[in-house]
Amino acid sequence: MISADIWASMPLIIIAAGIIFVLLLGAFVPGRHGTITGVILLLASALWTLRTPPLPVAPLLGIAFTPFARFFILLFSLTALITLLLSHDYNKRRGIHGEEYPATVLFATFGMVVLATSANLLNLFLGLEGLTFAFYILTAIDRNSPDSTEAGLKYLLQGAVSAALIAFGIALLYAGVGTLEINAAMKSVASGGKTVPVAYAGWGFLLMGLAFKVSLVPAHLWTPDVYQGAPTPVVAFLSTGSKAAGFAALLLLLPAMGSGISMLHTPLCCLSLFSMVLGNLAALRQQNLKRMLAYSSIAQMGYLTLALLTGIREGFAAVILYVVIYTAMNLSAFGAISSLTGENRLEDVEDFRGVGFSRPLQGGVLALSMFALAGIPPTAGFIGKFAIFAAALKGNELPLAVIGIITALISVYYYLRVVALLYMQPADGEKLSNQATVSEMIALCATSAVILLLGVYPGPLLELIDSILR
Amino acid sequence: MPMHESLQRTVAGNSSLVQELLPLALYSAMAVALVGILLLAAWWLGEKRQSAVKSSPYESGIRATGTARLAYPVPFYLIAIFFIVFDVEAVFIFVWAVAWDTLGMPGIIQITVFIMVLLLGLCWIWKKGGLDWGPSRAREKAPLRRPDDGFMQMTQTVATERGLHGGE
Amino acid sequence: MLNNSPILTILLFLPLLGSAVMLLLRNRDHWCRMLGLAVSGLELGLTGWLCAMAPIDPAGNSFRPGFFIYQDLPWIEQFGIRYTLGLDGISMLLVLLTAFIIFIAVLVSRQPVAKHLAFYYALILLIETGIMGVFLSLDLFLFYLFWEVMLIPIFFLISLWGRGRPVYSALKFFIFTLAGSLLMLLAIIALYLIHGDQTGRYTFALVELLHTALEPAAAAWLFGAFLLAFAIKIPIFPVHIWLPDTYADAPVAGSLILAALLAKTGAYGLIRFAYPLFPSALPLFTPLLLALAVAGIIYASWIAYSQGDLKRVVAYSSFGHMGFIVLGIAAWTPLSLSGSVLQMVNHGITTGCLFVLVGMLEERMQSTDVDAFGGIWGRAPYFSVFFLLVSLASLGLPGLNNFVGELLILIGVYRVSPWMATLAFSGVVPILVYTLRMVQKVLFEQGGRAEEMRDISLREGFTLSLFAIIIVFLGVYPAPLLDLIRVPVQLLVGGMP
């Protein structure tokens, strides 16, 4: 029994032990070993996950090493790995020292992994809050920048509210259905066509809290400021890892409800609609590239919700597919920005004029990720959008799908504006002239390869996703 | 009887949603009403005359000098936080202690891991100079960039914008 | 013997490979130019060879009637997406046209391109892959993929090497075409789901989707979405507003490709996909399309007459002549459809050549203002002869290529709707007027800056002679082309591709 527990939670143990190890190593052996140690640990956890077959639920710890969990552990580990590769030299340029940084990145990953493996609402909450907590610190970690501190404070205040909402929601769910075990709880929220009112209310709070985590309108207000203020690699991680975790949580909860998901249809529709429309419209007017990407990610979350609310198997598959693709797209977009900036704070769209020619690698990756985010083939963004709209049509969401298509068209304008600027002659010499370092190059090449590969040959991934959905 | 069972029984009976949520609604209404009445009463009964002397910090007439924002040494906060952290951890250990025999071997392993992590955390703080009062060796070795320190800068700007720096 | 051979795949991805190698050759301008010529030339040779190999009567084909070559592989099986390429008479002609125009585009891009040559040629080759893909795909998903892929290089081509307000024009073009395309994507998905629900087989294969039974209302909506996408690309009358800016601001190779090839992808889409897929929507849409086509012909001629910019005159003339092609497709009779397909080639050649000529003028005079020219006839006789020949071909002089196509279309349409045919025929008159006015202003009228005009170089002479030979040849002997498309057209109008 106990050995099975340990076996199932090994990736967690590796990462948890890794956090302590990285901290102590940093304290006793000064230097920048955190990144490489972290990368090795994350690789170890990813490899362990890959080599270990899925196990049944381990009731003692509330940890389920399901195929779903395995998939997401892998995704989170790799995302964190890319983040560490991106941060190493960026932090050097920005003067962010200390082993706290890699340790906190690992801690955020730990929270995500706990979340993905949870079979229990409490574990889910722990994971979600653990990772958000780590992000409060990461957002504010650049102590030399007022923007970073401001972003951290804003994130903390609004995050605390969402944590309270989620905790209260879980409490109400428990009051309504009498169990914290996810599958059982979700089944009895809406069994036999009748809903339990208190549990319904609980779902309302839970949904609002999760909407905050994945920044869906109207719970999106923190997003632009945090994206603009926080160090760019942190934003890369925040916009991918924590969003993916939010959707992993939703995917743990919603499919277990069976047909009961229809009771959440209206709120999910509103969230999706407002996010798609508002996110895309607001992004049109942004001058700061990171801020623009913040609104763009709000809109992308709207598309994900569109697939989610269909409540059909294809919808959930589309969500997982798009989460993976979105992770690759945003990692490479923010990765390119982070490898171009550092000492300077030039993050306006205009500052990127001519970068496509002066820095072909970073400029090319940025252009590629813009095309991918706009959903233009042959990038993976197109396959993702295709899957989402196919699922939406299959789930009879024609009006929302049409609105989604129209907003996607609007989004093309602001994405392509960036691409056009990247390949224009700079008016007054190149401002952004950082060469990509080796680790940044590895990270950027990896994410762009994923974008292109999934764009032309998504078959194996689709098969995998199909096998992990219950 | 656990709450959820009573709730489920209410639902199972043919009582309506309104009936079930009535206590909650009543409670909320009372809470809002109470707060509202208090605020209204304060507004109605209170004195509304304003003058420069009246809004000064000390109505007794002593003139306030300097800003009210004083810098405390950071170690105060650190010590306070360490206290809270270790105090809360003690609560967890206590919970284990009262049920140690039913929890058995897994319980011992778990609490050992817990205490070990705590201990390592303490080591880290110690090594980083978190427990030193005054300038520490660790901080001398790696000096932080000084007060363009983010938070101070931000509060400073906010304070200046709001005109909070008094009449120096 | 060519069935299921990878020859179409080679044809498709050779330019892509070329552009990848090109990007590795950064900053070696001479090599880039040579490589561009070599790849596009090889592609042209390959298509020529295929054309020669293809039997005129493909009755012996066991895979698909009408197709010379057919390649079918599974691709994304979870969605029922296949990698299906097919070459029949219609696509054969268009593939040949594509290879030729791209070769010319590489050939004429000499002077105006000063910077980032490798990127420039790589983009042109990428466009070739995209357009070839559109003409060869027989899977709706694959088709859509190429349909959008070709937008990216054109966007760059216009925004980086254009004149005037290039970024504005490029974005306008991109967003306009994407607006239609995205709605078409929804329609494709809807069709896929409807077919899947009916038969239990979820697939994007055109062959299977042709047998979908649709409610008339559903068919009308889906056809509308397809039509919008294709109409914007062609463009058909009310959705042409992106055209003048984009054509005028694009570099020579850009306008050449836009007018000669991109417009054809839209018309091809109507022929290959929209019409065969939704026959039940045709009674509703045929009168509308006929009316819009005629309106386009007359409107374009009217506007072209009042343009002061030579590039815009040619742009509107291209738009007007596309109206004839749409007219022929809308009538959907074997005769008119053959005329349209033939006219697609002719239009590509004449309009393409006109844009090349205008590009030469622009390069020499640094202007495309009609009033800046005049009196060129005396200064540059060779140039003037070519200009006159192509203009005459464009207005449909008997004995030159456009005449045959437009005649076939008008006869075909007359059988369906005599009124529309008459109206369209009357549209020839304004075309005559503005084309002759253009010739007169550019070549003969005095008062321009003709003294700055140089005559054509050997390279330019070679390019223009190629065009001239084709124009005359197709004008007097279009039979081989008509033979090539006879069977596919019969199959299409008979309801089967």
Question: Can I get a quick summary?
Answer:
The complex is a heterotrimer of chains A (470), B (168) and C (497). Chain A is an all-alpha fold and 470 residues long. Chain A has helices at residues 2-8, 10-28, 34-51, 67-94, 100-117, 121-139, 146-177, 182-189, 197-213, 222-229, 232-253, 265-284, 289-308, 313-340, 355-358, 360-374, 380-394, 398-422, 438-456, 459-468, and strands at residues 190-191, 194-195.
List the helices and strands and how they pair.
The complex is a heterotrimer of chains A (470), B (168) and C (497).
Chain A: H1 2-8, H2 10-28, H3 34-51, H4 67-94, H5 100-117, H6 121-139, H7 146-177, H8 182-189, E1 190-191, E2 194-195, H9 197-213, H10 222-229, H11 232-253, H12 265-284, H13 289-308, H14 313-340, H15 355-358, H16 360-374, H17 380-394, H18 398-422, H19 438-456, H20 459-468
Antiparallel strand pairs in A: 1-2
Helix pairs in contact in A: 2-3, 2-5, 3-4, 3-5, 4-5, 4-11, 4-14, 4-19, 5-6, 5-11, 6-7, 6-11, 7-9, 7-10, 10-13, 11-13, 11-14, 12-13, 12-18, 13-14, 13-17, 13-18, 14-16, 14-17, 14-19, 16-18, 16-19, 17-19
Chain B: H1 3-12, H2 17-45, H3 74-98, H4 100-128, H5 137-141, H6 150-161
Chain C: H1 7-24, H2 29-53, E1 67-76, E2 81-88, H3 89-108, H4 117-136, H5 140-149, H6 151-161, H7 166-199, H8 206-209, H9 216-233, H10 243-249, H11 252-277, H12 282-305, H13 310-331, H14 334-365, H15 376-379, H16 381-394, H17 401-416, H18 418-426, H19 428-444, H20 458-476, H21 479-493
Antiparallel strand pairs in C: 1-2
